[in-house]
Design brief:
The complex is a heterodimer. Chain A has helices at 14-26, 38-45, 81-87, 91-98, 103-106, 111-116, 125-130, 148-151, 220-226, 233-241, 256-275; strands at 7-9, 32-34, 53-56, 66-69, 72-76, 134-139, 142-147, 152-153, 155-156, 163-170, 178-183, 194-201, 204-210, 217-218. Chain A is of the alpha+beta class. Chain A has three domains: 7-56, 2-Layer Sandwich (Uridine Diphospho-n-acetylenolpyruvylglucosamine Reductase, domain 2), CATH 3.30.43; 61-173, Uridine Diphospho-n-acetylenolpyruvylglucosamine Reductase, domain 3 (2-Layer Sandwich); 178-275, 2-Layer Sandwich (Enolase-like, domain 1). The chains are: A alpha+beta, B alpha+beta. The interface between A and B is medium-sized, with 33 and 34 residues. The complex binds flavin-adenine dinucleotide (FAD) and FE2/S2 (inorganic) cluster (2 copies).
Chain lengths: 277, 157
Protein backbone atom coordinates (compact mmCIF):
# COMPACT_ATOMS: atom_id res chain seq x y z
CA UNK A 1 0.00 0.00 0.00
CA UNK A 2 1.13 3.53 -0.72
CA UNK A 3 0.94 5.25 2.67
CA UNK A 4 -0.14 8.70 1.43
CA UNK A 5 -2.54 10.20 -1.12
CA UNK A 6 -1.79 11.94 -4.36
CA UNK A 7 -3.82 13.35 -7.22
CA UNK A 8 -3.88 11.76 -10.65
CA UNK A 9 -4.08 13.61 -13.98
CA UNK A 10 -4.15 12.10 -17.45
CA UNK A 11 -3.66 14.79 -20.11
CA UNK A 12 -4.23 13.93 -23.76
CA UNK A 13 -1.80 16.42 -25.27
CA UNK A 14 1.77 17.56 -24.72
CA UNK A 15 0.62 21.13 -24.07
CA UNK A 16 -1.91 20.09 -21.41
CA UNK A 17 0.66 17.92 -19.65
CA UNK A 18 3.09 20.81 -19.33
CA UNK A 19 0.38 23.25 -18.32
CA UNK A 20 -1.07 20.99 -15.63
CA UNK A 21 2.37 20.10 -14.31
CA UNK A 22 3.20 23.78 -13.82
CA UNK A 23 -0.19 24.49 -12.30
CA UNK A 24 0.30 21.65 -9.81
CA UNK A 25 3.79 22.83 -9.03
CA UNK A 26 2.49 26.32 -8.30
CA UNK A 27 -0.06 24.80 -5.94
CA UNK A 28 2.86 23.16 -4.09
CA UNK A 29 1.82 19.63 -5.10
CA UNK A 30 5.35 18.44 -5.91
CA UNK A 31 4.09 16.66 -9.07
CA UNK A 32 5.86 13.89 -10.97
CA UNK A 33 5.43 12.83 -14.56
CA UNK A 34 4.17 9.23 -14.56
CA UNK A 35 4.80 6.67 -17.32
CA UNK A 36 5.02 2.91 -16.60
CA UNK A 37 4.82 3.79 -12.92
CA UNK A 38 7.03 0.87 -11.88
CA UNK A 39 9.63 3.02 -10.17
CA UNK A 40 7.22 5.63 -8.82
CA UNK A 41 4.91 2.99 -7.26
CA UNK A 42 7.82 1.05 -5.76
CA UNK A 43 9.43 4.14 -4.25
CA UNK A 44 6.13 5.62 -3.04
CA UNK A 45 5.23 2.31 -1.38
CA UNK A 46 8.59 2.41 0.38
CA UNK A 47 7.82 5.99 1.45
CA UNK A 48 10.96 7.31 -0.24
CA UNK A 49 9.18 9.74 -2.57
CA UNK A 50 6.09 11.82 -1.77
CA UNK A 51 4.50 13.32 -4.89
CA UNK A 52 1.28 15.23 -4.19
CA UNK A 53 0.18 14.61 -7.79
CA UNK A 54 1.20 12.53 -10.80
CA UNK A 55 0.72 13.49 -14.45
CA UNK A 56 0.29 10.32 -16.51
CA UNK A 57 1.80 10.73 -19.99
CA UNK A 58 0.40 7.52 -21.52
CA UNK A 59 -2.61 9.13 -23.26
CA UNK A 60 -0.49 11.59 -25.25
CA UNK A 61 -0.34 10.38 -28.87
CA UNK A 62 3.21 11.69 -29.54
CA UNK A 63 4.48 9.71 -26.54
CA UNK A 64 3.12 6.47 -28.04
CA UNK A 65 4.48 6.89 -31.58
CA UNK A 66 6.72 4.25 -33.12
CA UNK A 67 7.37 4.89 -36.79
CA UNK A 68 9.97 5.45 -39.48
CA UNK A 69 9.67 8.91 -41.02
CA UNK A 70 12.16 10.51 -43.44
CA UNK A 71 14.81 7.90 -42.63
CA UNK A 72 14.45 8.55 -38.91
CA UNK A 73 13.13 6.11 -36.34
CA UNK A 74 10.79 7.83 -33.90
CA UNK A 75 10.01 6.14 -30.60
CA UNK A 76 7.66 7.82 -28.14
CA UNK A 77 8.68 8.04 -24.50
CA UNK A 78 5.70 5.90 -23.37
CA UNK A 79 6.37 2.99 -25.73
CA UNK A 80 6.93 -0.05 -23.53
CA UNK A 81 10.14 -2.03 -23.65
CA UNK A 82 8.25 -5.13 -24.80
CA UNK A 83 6.57 -3.20 -27.65
CA UNK A 84 9.81 -1.75 -28.93
CA UNK A 85 11.56 -5.12 -28.69
CA UNK A 86 8.73 -6.81 -30.58
CA UNK A 87 8.85 -4.20 -33.35
CA UNK A 88 12.63 -4.71 -33.56
CA UNK A 89 13.24 -1.59 -35.68
CA UNK A 90 16.54 -0.93 -33.88
CA UNK A 91 17.99 -4.37 -33.05
CA UNK A 92 20.59 -3.14 -30.54
CA UNK A 93 17.89 -1.25 -28.64
CA UNK A 94 15.57 -4.29 -28.81
CA UNK A 95 18.23 -6.58 -27.41
CA UNK A 96 19.17 -4.10 -24.68
CA UNK A 97 15.51 -3.69 -23.72
CA UNK A 98 15.05 -7.47 -23.68
CA UNK A 99 17.78 -7.67 -21.03
CA UNK A 100 15.91 -5.31 -18.67
CA UNK A 101 13.68 -6.78 -15.91
CA UNK A 102 11.44 -9.61 -17.21
CA UNK A 103 8.87 -9.98 -20.00
CA UNK A 104 5.85 -9.09 -17.83
CA UNK A 105 7.55 -6.05 -16.27
CA UNK A 106 8.60 -4.94 -19.76
CA UNK A 107 4.90 -4.71 -20.64
CA UNK A 108 4.82 -1.77 -18.21
CA UNK A 109 8.29 -0.21 -18.19
CA UNK A 110 8.53 2.57 -20.78
CA UNK A 111 11.52 3.80 -22.74
CA UNK A 112 11.15 7.30 -21.24
CA UNK A 113 10.65 6.03 -17.70
CA UNK A 114 13.75 3.88 -17.96
CA UNK A 115 15.87 6.75 -19.30
CA UNK A 116 14.51 9.35 -16.84
CA UNK A 117 14.40 7.04 -13.83
CA UNK A 118 16.53 7.31 -10.74
CA UNK A 119 18.06 3.84 -10.52
CA UNK A 120 21.73 3.51 -11.46
CA UNK A 121 21.27 1.27 -14.49
CA UNK A 122 18.85 2.85 -17.01
CA UNK A 123 20.18 0.47 -19.63
CA UNK A 124 17.95 1.49 -22.53
CA UNK A 125 19.85 4.76 -22.88
CA UNK A 126 22.99 2.93 -24.06
CA UNK A 127 21.95 2.33 -27.71
CA UNK A 128 20.62 5.89 -27.94
CA UNK A 129 23.93 7.31 -26.68
CA UNK A 130 25.79 5.20 -29.23
CA UNK A 131 23.48 6.27 -32.07
CA UNK A 132 23.70 9.99 -31.23
CA UNK A 133 19.90 9.96 -31.06
CA UNK A 134 18.07 13.24 -30.77
CA UNK A 135 15.41 13.72 -28.17
CA UNK A 136 12.33 15.88 -28.16
CA UNK A 137 11.57 17.62 -24.90
CA UNK A 138 8.47 19.57 -23.94
CA UNK A 139 8.35 22.42 -21.43
CA UNK A 140 6.62 25.68 -20.68
CA UNK A 141 8.65 27.36 -23.45
CA UNK A 142 7.42 24.86 -26.03
CA UNK A 143 9.18 21.96 -27.68
CA UNK A 144 12.94 21.67 -28.06
CA UNK A 145 15.20 19.09 -29.64
CA UNK A 146 18.65 18.12 -28.37
CA UNK A 147 21.30 15.47 -28.91
CA UNK A 148 21.07 12.87 -26.16
CA UNK A 149 24.86 12.91 -25.92
CA UNK A 150 24.77 16.58 -24.98
CA UNK A 151 22.13 16.31 -22.30
CA UNK A 152 22.46 12.82 -20.86
CA UNK A 153 25.31 13.57 -18.49
CA UNK A 154 24.90 11.04 -15.68
CA UNK A 155 21.18 11.71 -15.96
CA UNK A 156 18.92 13.39 -18.48
CA UNK A 157 19.29 17.12 -17.86
CA UNK A 158 15.69 18.25 -18.12
CA UNK A 159 14.69 21.75 -17.07
CA UNK A 160 12.04 22.36 -14.42
CA UNK A 161 8.70 20.92 -15.57
CA UNK A 162 10.11 19.46 -18.80
CA UNK A 163 9.44 15.93 -19.99
CA UNK A 164 10.79 13.61 -22.66
CA UNK A 165 8.32 13.25 -25.53
CA UNK A 166 10.17 11.01 -27.99
CA UNK A 167 13.53 9.89 -29.34
CA UNK A 168 14.69 10.21 -32.95
CA UNK A 169 17.39 7.95 -34.40
CA UNK A 170 18.92 8.18 -37.84
CA UNK A 171 18.35 5.10 -40.00
CA UNK A 172 22.11 4.78 -40.68
CA UNK A 173 22.62 3.62 -37.06
CA UNK A 174 19.89 1.01 -36.97
CA UNK A 175 21.59 -1.89 -38.72
CA UNK A 176 25.26 -1.55 -37.76
CA UNK A 177 27.10 -4.67 -36.53
CA UNK A 178 26.61 -4.68 -32.76
CA UNK A 179 27.12 -6.65 -29.57
CA UNK A 180 25.23 -6.46 -26.29
CA UNK A 181 26.46 -8.24 -23.18
CA UNK A 182 24.67 -8.14 -19.87
CA UNK A 183 26.53 -9.86 -17.04
CA UNK A 184 24.55 -10.47 -13.86
CA UNK A 185 25.51 -11.97 -10.55
CA UNK A 186 23.16 -14.90 -11.26
CA UNK A 187 20.40 -15.94 -13.67
CA UNK A 188 18.74 -14.16 -16.60
CA UNK A 189 16.69 -11.53 -14.76
CA UNK A 190 18.03 -8.73 -12.59
CA UNK A 191 20.23 -5.69 -12.43
CA UNK A 192 23.59 -5.83 -14.18
CA UNK A 193 27.07 -6.26 -12.84
CA UNK A 194 28.15 -4.90 -16.18
CA UNK A 195 26.25 -4.19 -19.39
CA UNK A 196 28.19 -3.32 -22.51
CA UNK A 197 26.47 -2.23 -25.72
CA UNK A 198 28.71 -1.56 -28.70
CA UNK A 199 28.67 -1.21 -32.44
CA UNK A 200 31.08 -0.71 -35.26
CA UNK A 201 30.81 2.27 -37.59
CA UNK A 202 33.39 3.21 -40.24
CA UNK A 203 35.83 0.61 -38.79
CA UNK A 204 35.64 2.22 -35.33
CA UNK A 205 34.15 0.49 -32.30
CA UNK A 206 31.84 2.58 -30.10
CA UNK A 207 30.98 1.36 -26.61
CA UNK A 208 28.56 2.34 -23.84
CA UNK A 209 28.25 1.01 -20.29
CA UNK A 210 25.78 0.43 -17.48
CA UNK A 211 26.41 -1.11 -14.06
CA UNK A 212 30.06 0.00 -14.11
CA UNK A 213 29.60 3.36 -12.37
CA UNK A 214 26.50 4.77 -10.67
CA UNK A 215 25.16 6.00 -14.04
CA UNK A 216 25.19 4.81 -17.67
CA UNK A 217 27.77 6.46 -19.94
CA UNK A 218 29.81 6.43 -23.08
CA UNK A 219 33.28 7.91 -23.24
CA UNK A 220 35.28 9.16 -26.24
CA UNK A 221 38.54 8.48 -24.38
CA UNK A 222 37.60 4.87 -23.64
CA UNK A 223 36.65 4.32 -27.27
CA UNK A 224 39.90 5.91 -28.43
CA UNK A 225 41.96 3.54 -26.25
CA UNK A 226 39.97 0.47 -27.30
CA UNK A 227 40.45 1.31 -31.00
CA UNK A 228 44.24 1.75 -30.74
CA UNK A 229 45.21 -1.36 -32.66
CA UNK A 230 48.95 -0.58 -32.34
CA UNK A 231 49.00 -2.25 -28.91
CA UNK A 232 47.64 -5.61 -27.65
CA UNK A 233 43.98 -5.68 -26.62
CA UNK A 234 44.78 -6.45 -22.97
CA UNK A 235 46.90 -3.25 -22.73
CA UNK A 236 44.19 -1.23 -24.47
CA UNK A 237 41.70 -2.37 -21.88
CA UNK A 238 43.96 -1.45 -18.95
CA UNK A 239 44.36 2.03 -20.42
CA UNK A 240 40.66 2.36 -21.23
CA UNK A 241 39.70 1.61 -17.63
CA UNK A 242 41.81 4.59 -16.50
CA UNK A 243 39.19 6.76 -18.19
CA UNK A 244 36.15 5.54 -16.25
CA UNK A 245 34.18 8.71 -15.46
CA UNK A 246 33.59 7.81 -11.78
CA UNK A 247 34.53 5.13 -9.22
CA UNK A 248 33.39 1.58 -9.96
CA UNK A 249 30.05 0.75 -8.41
CA UNK A 250 30.29 -1.24 -5.20
CA UNK A 251 26.94 -2.66 -4.06
CA UNK A 252 24.87 -5.78 -3.43
CA UNK A 253 25.06 -6.82 -7.10
CA UNK A 254 28.86 -6.90 -6.97
CA UNK A 255 31.95 -5.39 -5.36
CA UNK A 256 34.08 -2.85 -7.25
CA UNK A 257 37.01 -5.27 -7.78
CA UNK A 258 34.67 -7.97 -9.08
CA UNK A 259 32.97 -5.49 -11.42
CA UNK A 260 36.39 -4.45 -12.73
CA UNK A 261 37.27 -8.07 -13.44
CA UNK A 262 33.95 -8.65 -15.25
CA UNK A 263 34.26 -5.33 -17.12
CA UNK A 264 37.71 -6.22 -18.48
CA UNK A 265 36.50 -9.57 -19.72
CA UNK A 266 33.35 -8.08 -21.26
CA UNK A 267 35.29 -5.30 -23.00
CA UNK A 268 37.62 -7.95 -24.44
CA UNK A 269 34.66 -10.00 -25.71
CA UNK A 270 33.03 -6.91 -27.27
CA UNK A 271 36.15 -5.63 -29.03
CA UNK A 272 37.24 -9.08 -30.14
CA UNK A 273 33.83 -9.86 -31.64
CA UNK A 274 33.41 -6.53 -33.40
CA UNK A 275 36.99 -6.48 -34.76
CA UNK A 276 36.25 -9.68 -36.62
CA UNK A 277 33.11 -8.29 -38.28
CA UNK B 1 -8.82 18.80 -15.98
CA UNK B 2 -10.10 15.27 -16.48
CA UNK B 3 -9.60 14.23 -12.88
CA UNK B 4 -10.71 15.20 -9.42
CA UNK B 5 -9.04 16.98 -6.57
CA UNK B 6 -10.99 14.83 -4.14
CA UNK B 7 -9.46 11.71 -2.67
CA UNK B 8 -11.71 9.26 -4.53
CA UNK B 9 -11.65 8.70 -8.26
CA UNK B 10 -14.41 6.87 -10.12
CA UNK B 11 -12.98 4.00 -12.16
CA UNK B 12 -14.91 1.83 -14.59
CA UNK B 13 -13.51 -1.39 -16.02
CA UNK B 14 -14.39 -4.93 -16.98
CA UNK B 15 -12.96 -7.79 -15.02
CA UNK B 16 -13.55 -11.39 -16.11
CA UNK B 17 -16.36 -10.18 -18.38
CA UNK B 18 -18.17 -8.24 -15.63
CA UNK B 19 -18.47 -4.43 -15.64
CA UNK B 20 -17.40 -2.74 -12.40
CA UNK B 21 -17.58 0.87 -11.29
CA UNK B 22 -15.78 1.71 -8.09
CA UNK B 23 -14.22 4.70 -6.36
CA UNK B 24 -10.59 4.51 -5.32
CA UNK B 25 -7.72 6.65 -4.06
CA UNK B 26 -5.34 7.56 -6.89
CA UNK B 27 -2.64 5.88 -4.80
CA UNK B 28 -4.52 2.57 -4.60
CA UNK B 29 -2.60 -0.35 -6.10
CA UNK B 30 -4.52 -2.60 -8.46
CA UNK B 31 -3.57 -5.87 -6.73
CA UNK B 32 -5.17 -4.70 -3.49
CA UNK B 33 -8.25 -3.26 -5.21
CA UNK B 34 -8.83 -6.67 -6.79
CA UNK B 35 -8.27 -8.52 -3.55
CA UNK B 36 -9.78 -6.18 -0.95
CA UNK B 37 -12.51 -4.27 -2.84
CA UNK B 38 -13.63 -6.91 -5.35
CA UNK B 39 -12.89 -10.10 -3.40
CA UNK B 40 -10.77 -11.48 -6.24
CA UNK B 41 -8.17 -13.03 -3.97
CA UNK B 42 -6.70 -15.43 -6.55
CA UNK B 43 -4.03 -12.88 -7.48
CA UNK B 44 -1.38 -13.11 -4.77
CA UNK B 45 1.07 -10.75 -3.19
CA UNK B 46 4.52 -12.33 -3.10
CA UNK B 47 6.85 -9.35 -3.06
CA UNK B 48 4.84 -6.19 -3.96
CA UNK B 49 7.96 -5.23 -5.88
CA UNK B 50 7.62 -6.61 -9.41
CA UNK B 51 9.96 -9.51 -8.78
CA UNK B 52 7.88 -12.67 -8.28
CA UNK B 53 4.89 -12.58 -10.69
CA UNK B 54 2.37 -13.99 -8.17
CA UNK B 55 0.14 -10.95 -8.79
CA UNK B 56 0.06 -11.29 -12.60
CA UNK B 57 -3.23 -10.45 -14.32
CA UNK B 58 -4.11 -9.70 -17.95
CA UNK B 59 -4.83 -6.08 -18.87
CA UNK B 60 -6.07 -5.80 -22.46
CA UNK B 61 -4.64 -9.30 -22.91
CA UNK B 62 -1.11 -8.46 -21.74
CA UNK B 63 0.34 -9.96 -18.56
CA UNK B 64 0.89 -7.18 -16.03
CA UNK B 65 2.20 -7.20 -12.48
CA UNK B 66 -0.78 -5.79 -10.64
CA UNK B 67 1.40 -4.82 -7.66
CA UNK B 68 3.04 -2.24 -9.94
CA UNK B 69 -0.10 -0.68 -11.39
CA UNK B 70 -2.43 1.96 -9.98
CA UNK B 71 -6.14 1.14 -10.09
CA UNK B 72 -6.84 4.50 -11.78
CA UNK B 73 -4.68 3.32 -14.71
CA UNK B 74 -7.18 0.60 -15.69
CA UNK B 75 -10.10 2.98 -16.17
CA UNK B 76 -11.88 1.84 -19.35
CA UNK B 77 -9.79 -1.33 -19.66
CA UNK B 78 -10.54 -5.06 -19.76
CA UNK B 79 -8.90 -7.36 -17.25
CA UNK B 80 -8.71 -11.10 -16.67
CA UNK B 81 -7.67 -12.56 -13.34
CA UNK B 82 -7.17 -16.20 -12.41
CA UNK B 83 -10.86 -16.34 -11.39
CA UNK B 84 -11.72 -15.81 -15.08
CA UNK B 85 -9.69 -18.82 -16.20
CA UNK B 86 -11.68 -21.55 -14.45
CA UNK B 87 -11.51 -24.77 -16.49
CA UNK B 88 -9.39 -23.11 -19.14
CA UNK B 89 -6.99 -25.28 -21.16
CA UNK B 90 -4.06 -23.75 -19.26
CA UNK B 91 -5.57 -24.51 -15.84
CA UNK B 92 -6.35 -28.06 -16.98
CA UNK B 93 -2.78 -28.58 -18.18
CA UNK B 94 -1.45 -27.42 -14.79
CA UNK B 95 -3.76 -29.84 -12.99
CA UNK B 96 -2.92 -32.74 -15.32
CA UNK B 97 0.85 -32.19 -14.88
CA UNK B 98 0.57 -31.45 -11.11
CA UNK B 99 2.48 -28.27 -11.87
CA UNK B 100 2.43 -26.93 -8.30
CA UNK B 101 3.19 -27.84 -4.71
CA UNK B 102 1.92 -25.14 -2.34
CA UNK B 103 0.12 -23.41 -5.25
CA UNK B 104 0.90 -19.84 -4.20
CA UNK B 105 2.64 -18.97 -7.48
CA UNK B 106 0.19 -20.93 -9.65
CA UNK B 107 -2.33 -18.14 -10.46
CA UNK B 108 0.49 -15.95 -11.76
CA UNK B 109 1.95 -18.73 -13.90
CA UNK B 110 -1.45 -19.69 -15.35
CA UNK B 111 -2.38 -16.09 -16.16
CA UNK B 112 1.01 -15.44 -17.77
CA UNK B 113 0.71 -18.61 -19.84
CA UNK B 114 -2.81 -17.59 -20.91
CA UNK B 115 -1.43 -14.21 -22.01
CA UNK B 116 1.24 -15.94 -24.07
CA UNK B 117 -1.34 -18.25 -25.64
CA UNK B 118 -3.46 -15.26 -26.65
CA UNK B 119 -0.63 -13.08 -27.94
CA UNK B 120 1.63 -15.74 -29.49
CA UNK B 121 -0.35 -18.97 -30.01
CA UNK B 122 2.60 -20.53 -31.86
CA UNK B 123 5.27 -19.56 -29.34
CA UNK B 124 8.49 -21.59 -29.57
CA UNK B 125 10.45 -23.01 -26.63
CA UNK B 126 12.73 -19.95 -26.39
CA UNK B 127 9.79 -17.53 -26.25
CA UNK B 128 8.11 -19.68 -23.61
CA UNK B 129 11.34 -19.68 -21.58
CA UNK B 130 11.59 -15.87 -21.76
CA UNK B 131 7.94 -15.34 -20.74
CA UNK B 132 8.06 -17.82 -17.87
CA UNK B 133 11.12 -16.09 -16.40
CA UNK B 134 8.69 -13.43 -15.14
CA UNK B 135 7.39 -15.81 -12.47
CA UNK B 136 9.10 -17.42 -9.51
CA UNK B 137 8.09 -20.68 -7.84
CA UNK B 138 9.61 -21.02 -4.38
CA UNK B 139 8.63 -24.70 -4.30
CA UNK B 140 10.64 -25.20 -7.51
CA UNK B 141 7.93 -26.96 -9.49
CA UNK B 142 9.62 -25.68 -12.64
CA UNK B 143 9.93 -29.04 -14.40
CA UNK B 144 6.20 -29.76 -14.03
CA UNK B 145 5.29 -26.17 -14.97
CA UNK B 146 7.39 -26.47 -18.13
CA UNK B 147 5.62 -29.72 -18.98
CA UNK B 148 2.19 -28.14 -18.45
CA UNK B 149 3.08 -25.22 -20.69
CA UNK B 150 4.46 -27.55 -23.37
CA UNK B 151 1.13 -29.38 -23.27
CA UNK B 152 -0.68 -26.08 -23.82
CA UNK B 153 1.48 -25.31 -26.87
CA UNK B 154 1.49 -28.96 -28.06
CA UNK B 155 5.29 -29.06 -27.87
CA UNK B 156 7.38 -32.17 -27.30
CA UNK B 157 8.44 -32.68 -23.69
C1 LIG C 1 11.57 -6.53 -11.53
C2 LIG C 1 12.24 -5.35 -12.16
C3 LIG C 1 13.56 -5.47 -12.62
C4 LIG C 1 14.19 -4.40 -13.25
N1 LIG C 1 15.47 -4.55 -13.76
C5 LIG C 1 16.04 -3.53 -14.44
C6 LIG C 1 17.35 -3.68 -15.01
O1 LIG C 1 17.98 -4.73 -14.91
N2 LIG C 1 17.86 -2.62 -15.69
C7 LIG C 1 17.20 -1.43 -15.84
O2 LIG C 1 17.71 -0.52 -16.49
N3 LIG C 1 15.96 -1.28 -15.30
C8 LIG C 1 15.38 -2.29 -14.62
N4 LIG C 1 14.12 -2.13 -14.10
C9 LIG C 1 13.37 -0.90 -14.41
C10 LIG C 1 13.62 0.26 -13.46
O3 LIG C 1 13.93 -0.18 -12.16
C11 LIG C 1 12.41 1.20 -13.42
O4 LIG C 1 11.35 0.56 -12.71
C12 LIG C 1 11.88 1.60 -14.79
O5 LIG C 1 12.94 1.94 -15.65
C13 LIG C 1 10.93 2.79 -14.68
O6 LIG C 1 10.22 2.94 -15.87
P1 LIG C 1 8.67 3.39 -15.85
O7 LIG C 1 8.23 3.59 -17.25
O8 LIG C 1 7.89 2.45 -15.02
O9 LIG C 1 8.83 4.82 -15.15
P2 LIG C 1 8.02 5.58 -14.00
O10 LIG C 1 8.03 4.79 -12.72
O11 LIG C 1 6.72 6.04 -14.51
O12 LIG C 1 8.95 6.87 -13.84
C14 LIG C 1 10.30 6.78 -13.39
C15 LIG C 1 10.87 8.20 -13.25
O13 LIG C 1 11.03 8.81 -14.53
C16 LIG C 1 10.23 10.00 -14.65
N5 LIG C 1 9.65 9.96 -16.00
C17 LIG C 1 8.96 8.92 -16.56
N6 LIG C 1 8.70 9.20 -17.84
C18 LIG C 1 9.20 10.43 -18.10
C19 LIG C 1 9.25 11.26 -19.26
N7 LIG C 1 8.74 10.85 -20.43
N8 LIG C 1 9.86 12.47 -19.16
C20 LIG C 1 10.41 12.88 -17.98
N9 LIG C 1 10.42 12.13 -16.85
C21 LIG C 1 9.81 10.92 -16.92
C22 LIG C 1 9.21 9.91 -13.52
O14 LIG C 1 8.79 11.17 -13.09
C23 LIG C 1 9.97 9.14 -12.46
O15 LIG C 1 10.80 10.03 -11.74
C24 LIG C 1 13.50 -3.18 -13.42
C25 LIG C 1 12.19 -3.04 -12.92
C26 LIG C 1 11.56 -4.10 -12.31
C27 LIG C 1 10.17 -3.92 -11.81
S1 LIG D 1 3.65 -9.40 -5.84
FE1 LIG D 1 3.73 -8.48 -7.81
S2 LIG D 1 5.52 -9.28 -8.67
FE2 LIG D 1 5.56 -10.07 -6.65
S1 LIG E 1 4.05 -24.15 -5.97
FE1 LIG E 1 4.73 -23.16 -4.16
S2 LIG E 1 5.56 -21.33 -4.92
FE2 LIG E 1 5.17 -22.43 -6.70
Amino acid sequence: MIPFDFEYYKPTSVQLAVKWFHFLQKKGKNPLYFAGGTEIITWARQNSIHPGAVVDLKSIPECNAMEMRNDKLIIGACVTLSALSAANSFPLLSETAQGIADQTARNQITLGGNICGNIYYRESVLPLLLANSRIVIAGMNGIREASIRDIFLRHLRLGNGEFLVKTITDRSYLSLPFVHYKKRQIGNVGYPLVTVAAFKKDSQIHTAYSGVCSFPFRSAQIDRELNDSSIPLSDRIVQAIDYLPAPLLNNAEGSAPYRKFVLKQTMADAVHTLESR
Amino acid sequence: MSSLDSAKYPVEFEVNGEKQTIRVRAADILLYTLRDNLGLTGSKSGCDNGDCGACTILVEGFPIKSCLMLTVEVDGKQMTTIEGLRNSPVQNAFVKNQAFQCGYCTPGFIVNCEGLRNKLPHADKETIRVWLESNICRCTSYEEIRNAVKDVFSLEK
